[in-house]
């Protein structure tokens, strides 16, 4: 543990109760405040209690080197553990990591497989928007980055599906931005740029009416 790390009375209660969620939330608060070292310690404690979100958060800390030595290998390991436990966030991030050469492990097939796993976890193995449109929209909106990635994936294969995912990404990002999470602004602008392409001129209006 970091030298000045001390558990509060509430932390000790959470440990005694096996409340990994509370410890993860404490870690997330430290992370938002820029205290990455304390955040990592809370994530480790929460992960030890089986809190899946904490396992994902540790993956991000290793991926970006937040107070610990950056390790893509360990980041992937944590994301895979969380993905096996059903984490959509972990499945998305694995798809993202394997999607390009940025992390030195590019594998387009693996990337597509993890994106598909994420969407199937949210919807059904034989997913289709038409099966239960409103439920699909409700489940996808909290994952705008996944929708953005899928929108890019389908650009060369199915423009209608690409448009649907990009619209979901835009609306999802807007919800987070309105909630004060401004770090999504850049990604939202990128989505808007894609939706502004001529191939989506008619599709955007059509699918916006259908989805929302």
TrEMBL record:
Residue ranges the record marks as coiled coil: none
Q: Cross-referenced Pfam families, in alphabetical order?
A: Sel1
**SUPFAM superfamilies to which the protein is assigned, alphabetical:** HCP-like (SSF81901)
In terms of PANTHER family, this protein maps to: ACTIVATOR OF C KINASE PROTEIN 1-RELATED (PTHR43628), CHITIN SYNTHASE REGULATORY FACTOR 2-RELATED (PTHR43628:SF1)
- Name of the molecule in the record: Sel1 repeat family protein
């Amino acid at each position: 543990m970091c030298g000045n790390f001390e558990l509060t009375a509430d932390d000790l209660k959470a440990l005694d109760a096996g409340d990994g969620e509370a410890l993860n939330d404490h870690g997330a608060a430290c992370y938002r405040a820029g205290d990455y070292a304390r955040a990592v310690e809370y994530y480790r404690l929460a992960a030890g209690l089986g809190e899946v979100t904490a396992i994902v958060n540790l993956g991000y800390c290793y991926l970006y080197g937040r107070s610990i030595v950056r390790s893509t290998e360990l980041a992937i390991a944590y994301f895979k553990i969380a993905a096996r436990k059903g984490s959509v966030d972990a499945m998305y991030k694995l798809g993202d990591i394997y999607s390009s050469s940025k992390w030195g492990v590019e594998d387009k097939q693996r990337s597509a497989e993890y994106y598909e796993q994420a969407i199937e976890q949210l919807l059904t193995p034989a997913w289709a928007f038409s099966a239960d449109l409103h439920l699909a929209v409700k489940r996808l909106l909290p994952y705008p980055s996944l929708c953005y990635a899928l929108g890019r994936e389908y650009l060369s294969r199915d423009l209608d599906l690409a448009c649907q995912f990009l619209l979901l990404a835009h609306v999802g990002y807007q919800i987070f931005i309105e909630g004060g999470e401004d770090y999504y602004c850049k990604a939202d602008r990128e989505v808007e740029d894609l939706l502004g392409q001529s191939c989506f001129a008619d599709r955007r209006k059509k699918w916006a009416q259908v989805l929302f």
